[in-house]
Amino acid sequence: MSTLGLLGQVELPAQVASVPQARSYVRDLLDGVGHPRADDALLLLTELVTNSVRHSDSGRTPDGRITVAIAHHNGTLHIDVIDAGSSTGQRPRVCPDTDPDSSGGRGLWLVQQLSSDWGWYETSAGRVVWCQLGGR
């Protein structure tokens, strides 16, 4: 079984201001591998980081942190956003009646539509929300 090759990982404050920092970091990583879906990857990263900041315990505490990890294998890009999870029981889910023209509530819908696969799982340190993009 082959493993993913880690391109990079960065820890950031769980604040809205970290969204462009995460994008810039990942853009630089993707420039190095020339992934054909870099624009899609940056959009999905933006949605995952924004959700993490808005909906996780990391974003609810002044010193909360999130981690972004990017890996690549055989043309597939793997994006992880790791946060503290949610003590309120809130779980990542696609809103059932997502309106593509609305200004909010479309983050995971976009992830579901554009990624080749996505999901989430809990760890002892918190929650990982991930997605994958194949090179088309």
UniProtKB/TrEMBL annotation:
InterPro entries given in the database record: Anti-sigma-factor_SerPK, HATPase_C_sf, HATPase_dom
Domain Histidine kinase/HSP90-like ATPase: 12-130
Pfam family, one: HATPase_c_2
GO function terms (MF aspect): ATP binding
Swiss-Prot/TrEMBL keywords: ATP-binding, Kinase, Nucleotide-binding, Serine/threonine-protein kinase, Transferase
PANTHER family with a match to the protein in the record: ANTI-SIGMA-F FACTOR RSBW (PTHR35526:SF3), ANTI-SIGMA-F FACTOR RSBW-RELATED (PTHR35526)
UniProt name for this protein: ATP-binding protein
